[in-house]
Structures are given as structure tokens and as C-alpha cells.
Prior knowledge:
The protein is mostly helical.
Amino acid sequence: xxxxxxxxxxxxxxxxxxxxxxxxxxxxxxxxxxxxxxxxxxxxxxxxxxxxxxxxxxxxxxxxxxxxxxxxxxxxxxxxxxxxxxxxxxxxxxxxxxxxxxxxxxxxxxxxxxxxxxxxxxxxxxxxxxxxxxxxxxxxxxxxxxxxxxxxxxxxxxxxxxxxxxxxxxxxxxxxxxxxxxxxxxxxxxxxxxxxxxxxxxxxxxxxxxxxxxxxxxxxxxxxxxxxxxxxxxxxxxxxxxxxxxxxxxxxxxxxxxxxxxxxxxxxxxxxxxxxxxxxxxxxxxxxxxxxxxxxxxxxxxxxxxxxxxxxxxxxxxxxxxxxxxxxxxxxxxxxxxxxxxxxxxxxxxxxxxxxxxxxxxxxxxxxxxxxxxxxxxxxxxxxxxxxxxxxxxxxxxxxxxxxxxxxxxxxxxxxxxxxxxxxxxxxxxxxxxxxxxxxxxxxxxxxxxxxxxxxxxxxxxxxxxxxxxxxxxxxxxxxxxxxxxxxxxxxxxxxxxxxxxxxxxxxxxxxxxxxxxxxxxxxxxxxxxxxxxxxxxxxxxxxxxxxxxxxxxxxxxxxxxxxxxxxxxxxxxxxxxxxxxxxxxxxxxxx
Length: 592
């Protein structure tokens, strides 16, 4: 016998493989029997498999795999699906669907999954495959019954996790509003169930938020908290809404923390408050965090950042030292390195504020995180500029590595910022022109160019550029707002200015900066009561120094000098060197 003859090898392989298939088929039949029969019946041995049927199955499976792996997925799919249909084996249906998915044929994958579900209607895997493929194909309207079955078959302990995963799964849908509506239909029973209701409402809230329905998302978060007043998930959804300028969501966070003061949740709340520039409120939350969990290193790093911003340098250094002590014990090397980099940058800023440029340079020199080296070099350039070495600083930025369009943009952006800090607006404008040349259709870059044109005293150029942005991207609300505010601030074409700002509000109705612009144009039009109302609302939503300057001036003009001084002091605390606030105080002769 020639053991190297190809036909001999093939028949030997066929015999061995056939034996394997017989065993696997028998085992599969046994598993199915265990699933369907009683425990007593399941103790009996499986029936002997039909050798003729097993041989046919073997050939179909064998040819299906060979075809799929040698570049003919269509044939592989057909062989595998036929084998699955004749054997009613879930693994073969799944393999047929996977072959179609790998070939990027969603419709064929769906056909295999539906055939699988039809053959094994109680199979959770079959139901899940059909559900996921329909979502991937954007056929969201066909999924409610499938989602109900998936939830019904989820073990009680796993149901909350299943519900929490829904926003991510349906996040692929192009019609976000339809996705939210379909999921709500499927979750009717879960939403009313005290055990699953909180997770179900939070999942629905996230889908509504993704669809732009902030009011609906807020309602969902409230429903979740009604069922569980300590729900952390409801509070985290509320934090997302608060970050989206929905102030009513804050009450949900406060109630959750009162019931269950979770330091990590409080830390997340503090970060949102920082983003909203509500620094005193953020400080209070951080103080609570450091008491509740004094070994939470991240909290001390953020505390140090706030203390540095308030120019409390010794306190910032003490907090940084506390952070370094805690961070050094971290077992996550990547997190530790990234956190240490942030601490070194803060130390460098403290030294810079002390005008100890050598120490600042030394701290920057300790940064060896490849991802942060670029930022450290930018900081070095800022140090050089502060020492009067502007040409050297610009040369350093230009010499940074990277020749891609993105690298060039980052370097030019850093140079623009450097020149802005030095109040060299004309030079900054010229560099911004270079940036725009890299991406002429980028609305944000042209917008920034327009803002620099205003800074260097060219309002006509600014208006030309902003109208260019509006023509190219009619929904870019920042351009309407900037142009309207500029006109109002200069007392020009006030009716047109108001129209432009109202247009901006159509696209971003809750934006406090656009509300500030509207309040300012109302003040210029002589409508002081309306101006006061709008500016107070804007300042409450976003305590910003320029909003404070405008609100203070309106209060001053109404004779409320005490109220004006209080608002201005708050603005001065936020940003002591702000030009608009300084100009306002000087023009009105108001000392603080």
C-alpha cells in the first residue's frame, strides 16, 4: 500500500473525519434530547446515528468549509445551510450565518439566522443572531418581538446587563428616533417592573438622548429614580444631560448622592461642574470626595488644578504631592504614567507662575510619555515666549516632528495659541491662514480666522469670513451668533444683529452664550428688562466672565450697583485678566 498516494490519503482522512462527524452528530442529538426531555429520559444513552445521513452531512460540512476557506463563500454558505437544515443543528446554522457575515452579505446571513430561528424557535442564540443582524441592516422596525424574546430569555441576574447594552446595540441605527420608539415598545413590561424598571428607563433615556430628545431623556431618568432613588445609572444619565445644558437634571444627581454618596459618582459630578465653569460648586464636591475616599488619587489631581486656577500655589503643590504619593502605589502602569504626566505639567505651570522658568523646564523634562511629549514641547515654547524669546519659541514649534496634514495642523494651532497669548493677533491671523489652506472647507478653522480678524481690528474681514462659513454650512450656529454679537457690540444694524442671533438660537436653543448675545442686543436696543432676564438665565447656566461683564453692566444701568459689583467679582474670580471685564469696569468707572 502506497501511503503517499493522494487518493489513499484522502480516503484515510474521509474515514477518520466520518467517524468524528458521527460522534459529533450523536453528541449534538444527545444534547438536544437533554434539552427537550425530562431528567429521567435524559439519563438514557443516545440513539445510534444513521451512518448514511452522517456521511452526507460530512460531505456537505467538508465542502462548505473548503469552499468558504478557498475563496468561494457563496458555495460554502449553500453547503453549510443545507447541512444545517437537514440536521437541525444550531451550530451549523450559526456557521452558515458567519460565512455570510464574513463575506459581508447581510441578507444571506439574515436568511440563515431566520432559518435557524424557524427550526429552533426557542433558541436564544438564534433569536439574538436575527436581532443583531436586523439592527446591523438598519431594519429597526422588525426587531420589537425579537427584543422581547431576548429579554424574556435573559436570566434575572443578567437582565440589567442586557438592558444596559441596548443603547450601544441600537446606536448603529440611522434613525435614532425610530430606534428609541421601537425599544420603548419592546420594553413595556420591563419599564413597569420595579426590578428591571430602573435599568430599562435608563437604557431608553440614553436612546432618547442619542435621538436629540433631551426632554424625553430627562423624563426617563426621573422615572428610573422614582423606582430606585439611589440609582447610580440614573444619576450618570442625568450627568450627561447636565453636561448638555439641561439644568433640571442636576436634582437627580443630588438626590442620588444624598441616598448613596458614591465617591466615583461625585467625582464625575465634579468634572461636569468644571466643564460648566461652576468652579465653587466643583470645589465643594471635590472636598467631599477627598473626605469620603481620601485615597482616590484622581480627586487630588483635579483639586490641585482648581487651586492652581485660583492662584493658591502652596495648596496646589500640597495636593499634587498627595496625588503623587497615591499614584506611585497604582498597579496600572499606563494610568500611572498618564497621571504623572498631568502632575508634572501642573508643577511646571506653578513654577511658571512663580517665574521660576528653570524649575518649570525641569518639570517638563521629566515627561517621557510619548503621547504627551508634544504637549510638553508646546509648554516649553510658551516658557520661551514669556521670557521674551518669541522667535526661538516659534522655531521650536515649527521644528516639532511630523509631516502629515494632522501634525502640521497641530503645530500651527499651537503657534496660533502662542501668538494669541502674546496678543500678536496680526501674526496669529497669518498663521491661521496657513491652517485654513490645509483644509479650506473646515468651518471651524475659517471661524477661528474670522475671530482673529476681529481681534486685529478688521471687522469687515471678520464679517466676510463668517458669511462665507454660513454660505457653506448653514447650520453652523456659531457663525450666526458671532456675527450678530459683533454687530450688537458695535451698535450697528441692531435689527439684523438680533435676527442673526435668533437664527443661532434655532439651532442651539439652550446655549447660554447665544442667550448672552441675545441679552446684549436687547440691551443695545434699550430693552433692559428683557436683557436682564436673558443674561441672568445665561449666567446661571454658565458662569462665564464675559456673561458676567454684560449682566453687571445691565444691572449697573438699572441702578443695582451692589448686584453689578457682586456679579463682576464672580467674573473676576473666574478670569481676573479678562479684557472685556476690565474694559467694562474702566468705561463705567466701577471699582471692585
